[in-house]
Design goal:
The complex is a heterodimer of chains A (136) and B (139).
Chain A: E1 15-18, H1 21-31, H2 36-39, E2 67-76, E3 85-100, E4 103-115, E5 121-131
Antiparallel strand pairs in A: 1-3, 2-5, 3-4, 4-5
Chain B: E1 11-16, H1 22-32, H2 42-47, H3 57-72, E2 77-84, E3 95-105, E4 111-120, E5 126-136
Antiparallel strand pairs in B: 1-3, 2-5, 3-4, 4-5
Classes of the chains: A mainly beta (136), B alpha+beta (139).
């Protein structure tokens, strides 16, 4: 799949993630967050959605060494809790090309959304990944 | 921390993190599922021209998430957005800081505080910058 404007609007399949108490607790330990509700694994820290690994459409086969993570933004309708089942999809919202220090750089802006089983949005994440070394 | 009375332009209390340790990066790789070896394997990092392993950018975002939580509580974090500006290396000590950008009163009596936030290293360099929105309630 070429890394160009034709990817705008491309959407991943839906993946359901079960939020496990132990996974939350390990994440809180890794970031060094001492809050007891996180350490017990009851509530997930704000950046826990990074664990919902949904490949960006069109980038799955590219060497991660060519990626630079530029920006990340999460918005929350409510905190994520142990026991949540979140169905996540990622779509490419924008894509643009710049010539820079690293040659051709492709900016890929994707949006992930997580919905609960009733279809209510729980969180959204907007991620900018810069892919460099294109065509080398 | 009590931040409800802060006006735009006023600083939120700073929060210093423990030094970034290699075990932390290994734990973060496992807990987050980001297994890019530039964060955990010195050989890979050197081959990539980085000298030594660098911390996951998302770890510094995690620090800022902790910061918002300590300022406002886990139930009150509405938005966290960051730009990754500079690399974080082993031994770096990051401090989270913030400034109130805006106060938006809500119909239910709460206030939405928009904060400019960042993590800076021990040399005062801003490594991760961004914004957060948190709800605060009258005491």
């Amino acid at each position: 799949m070429p890394l160009d404007h034709s990817l705008i609007g491309a959407t991943s399949g839906a993946t359901a993630f079960v939020v496990e108490q132990g996974a939350i607790a390990r994440f809180a330990d890794a970031i060094g967050d001492p809050n007891p509700v996180y350490r017990r694994g009851d509530v997930a820290p704000p950046t826990f959605p990074t664990t919902f690994r949904v490949a960006v459409p069109g980038l799955a086969d590219i060497d991660p060494a060519r990626f630079i993570h530029g920006n990340e933004e999460y918005t929350y309708q409510r905190p994520i809790r142990a026991g949540d089942v979140l169905t996540c999809r990622r779509r490419i919202a924008e894509l643009f090309v710049k010539e820079g220090r690293l040659g051709r750089m492709v900016f890929v802006i994707s949006i992930i959304e997580g919905h609960d089983p009733d279809g209510a949005l729980v969180f959204a994440g907007k991620s900018t990944v810069i892919v460099h070394g294109e065509g080398e | 921390m009590q931040i409800i009375g802060l006006e735009p332009g006023e600083a939120t209390p700073s929060l210093e993190m423990a030094p970034v340790h290699k075990v932390q990066l290994v734990k973060y790789a496992g807990a987050s599922g980001d297994f890019n070896l530039i964060h955990t394997d010195a050989e890979t990092a050197r081959a990539a021209g980085l000298g030594d392993v660098i911390a996951h950018g998302m770890l510094s975002m995690g620090f800022l998430g902790r910061y918002l939580t300590e300022l406002a509580g886990p139930e009150n974090v509405r938005r966290l957005g960051v730009k990754f500006q500079a690399m974080v290396r082993l031994g770096d000590v990051l401090t989270c800081r913030g400034i109130v950008k805006a106060r938006t009163p809500l119909a239910d009596g709460r206030t939405l505080l928009t904060l400019e936030i960042w993590a800076e290293n021990q040399r005062g360099e801003k490594v991760t910058t961004g914004e957060g929105d948190v709800w605060v309630s009258p005491a």
